[in-house]
Amino acid sequence: VQRDLNVAVAEFTELKQQLERDTLVLSVLKKLQEFDTTIKECNSALQEKQYVAAAQQLEKARSSLRSLESRRGFELKILKALGTELTVQTQNMIYHLGEEWQKLIVWKLPPSKGSSSLEAVVLSELHLHTVPPQDEDTAVPPMAAVLQALAVLGELHSKLKDFGHLLLQYILKPLISHPSLAPVPEEQPDVFILRFRSQELALDESSPMEVFEKIKLVFEVLHKYLLNVPLEQPGEGRVTLAELLGELIWEELSDCLIHNCLVNSIPTNSSKLEQYKEVIESTEEFEKALKKMQFLKEDTTALLKYACNVDSHFANKKCQDVIMAARNLMTSEIHNTVKITPDSSIALPELPDPGSGDHVKLARACSLVPSGTVSVGSESRLSPLTLCLPCCRISSSVQQLVELAYHTLLEATASTDLCCVQLFDCVRNIFQLFYEVVPTYHRENLQKLPQLAAIHHNNCMYIAHHLLTLGHQFRYRSTSVLSNGAATFVDLVPAFRRLGMECFLAQMRVQKGEILERLSSARNFSNMDDEENYCAANKAIKQVLHQLRRLGMVWQDVLPVNVYCKAMGALLNTALAEIVTRIAALEDISAEDADRLYSLCRIMVEEGPQVFTPLLEEDRNKKYQEEVPVYVHKWMTFKELMIILQANLQEIVDQWADGKGPLAEEFSAAEVKSLIRALFQNTERRAAALAKIK
């Protein structure tokens, strides 16, 4: 019995395994049969142009093949052939759908494909063969079948992407960029055509409202003839074509609308901000219309957010425009100048007096003055010119720059707190930009041309002069953000003064170097009895005077009178000091040498003062020519040297007057003794004279 039982178990196990194999083979054969059936049905549906059914059969075949391939330990060579067949059928289906797509949507593009110029766009046309035939009443329009089939196969995304790219390039972006372009929709019995026409416009830019209307018109006709098709999208459920297209192109389209349309509509003046509400309302209506057509999702508000944030955009645009205008002024020519006088009026905005509340504040401030302080009464008024900038010439571009700063600050006072602070910072940036840009951009000219160096000096002083009170003037006009005293430019004043002085002093060093170089060719003023040496010295003197006259002319009516006189005095002083040093260092001066040296010095004394011509009116310059000793420190030293060159021993001793005479004021005892030894022979009289020089 035990043996029969074992045999029965073995037979049962074998039968069970055989049944499992047969069941597996049967299921595989069933799947193969399903695959074959779906492929046949797909071909049949394709021939009848039932694209949705054909696509669904293909997907069933793909599912069957995927099921077969997933069985482990069961591989059939036929699976590879089936995979190839499925690929061929799929590509065949995609090809047919592609042809149908091309029949539905026809682009007629200009010969120069890729060009988005106005001439090229006018030649572009979009033909939609999606108008349902009048004589046929079909339950499912052919267009919907083609689109659904593409969706089933997963090819709709790529088709829509290409369509969206062309739509942006040849329709939407040109409508935004070219104000004169207008869409012209035309419906015919079997086709809808979208063309364009170009019309003459008075303005170079169209308003956002006009652009929105054009774009909305395009989407309305597209929605009517193409996009209003519900589709079953795998993994997403039921969606419309408009939603799918919106996801693909809205980001790029909204960026284009912002940067090429809304940005240009941002007001450049705060007084026009109220009018911008119309743009905000138009933007809101535009987004609502697109959402109604399901092109946009309900939570999409990129355009509206940008339009509503107009204060920030206004401030950014204003700052950008101001900085660009300032930079253009900074890089313009320095030599175009205007004269600044105490009574000259700059085109600055009229600033009203502080309000009554401010007078209270001022009254309280005055009460803090110590009781012992003497008040300046009406009888002891300061001169109206006390705090005025002296007469000089500045670059017209710098005058315009300061005007720009004033007008920008006036704009800030009429703006919101955020905008006010931003515009105030922008004005500070203007001056910091000037500090960095001008010395670098004009470096070569400032080094080579003395007149430009003088004008730049005046420019810096002019800016510093206005910076002293610029913030204070707007204190009572600005918002609470800036009225607490933080709106100041005083910290920039020392830097601008230093900038102007350093540039001018560098030019002074160059001029001093040229003077010393010319005097170095005078052969140390030695052996003047030699005609060649005398001619060289005479030439050097005349070259120095010519240089000073030329500088006097280029700085005339440019520098303030006091700066002009100090500068010319310093340069003339350099020449006189060098001549005195060279002559005082001579060891032997003959009588003829002394006469010739005296004649050379007389040229300097006679013609030197004539280089002082700060004003255009000649008769007004005499005053400054007579004041040469005030500006030339070595003037009296030079005149004393001339006296020594013509004097005898007794006259020199009298001039010394035991160290109390005018000669002692200008020369040391050692220098006088050296000159006496050089001028006079070694005699008892000379020894006696030398003994008196102590």
From TrEMBL:
Residues 97-330 form the Centromere/kinetochore protein zw10 middle domain. It is found in: Chromosome, Centromere, Kinetochore; Cytoplasm, Cytoskeleton, Spindle; Endoplasmic reticulum membrane. It comes from the Eukaryota. Residues 387-517 form the Centromere/kinetochore protein zw10 C-terminal domain. Keywords: Acetylation, Cell cycle, Cell division, Centromere, Chromosome, Coiled coil, Cytoplasm, Cytoskeleton, Endoplasmic reticulum, ER-Golgi transport, Kinetochore, Membrane, Mitosis, Phosphoprotein, Protein transport, Transport. Its main location: nucleus. GO terms for biological process: cell division; endoplasmic reticulum to Golgi vesicle-mediated transport; mitotic spindle assembly checkpoint signaling; protein transport. Residues 539-693 form the ZW10 C-terminal helical domain. InterPro entries: Zw10/DSL1_C_sf, ZW10_C, ZW10_C_2, Zw10_middle, Zw10_N. It is a peripheral membrane protein. Residues 1-38 form the Centromere/kinetochore protein zw10 N-terminal domain. GO terms for cellular component: endoplasmic reticulum membrane; nucleus; RZZ complex; spindle. The keyword Protein transport applies. Pfam families: ZW10_C, ZW10_C2, Zw10_middle, Zw10_N. PANTHER family: CENTROMERE/KINETOCHORE PROTEIN ZW10, CENTROMERE_KINETOCHORE PROTEIN ZW10 HOMOLOG. Interacts with NBAS and KNTC1/ROD; the interactions are mutually exclusive and indicative for its association in two different vesicle tethering complexes. Component of the RZZ complex composed of KNTC1/ROD, ZW10 and ZWILCH. Component of the NRZ complex composed of NBAS, ZW10 and RINT1/TIP20L; NRZ associates with SNAREs STX18, USE1L, BNIP1/SEC20L and SEC22B (the assembly has been described as syntaxin 18 complex). Interacts directly with RINT1/TIP20L bound to BNIP1/SEC20L. Interacts with C19orf25 and ZWINT. Interacts with ZFYVE1. Belongs to the ZW10 family. This is Centromere/kinetochore protein zw10 homolog. The gene is Zw10.
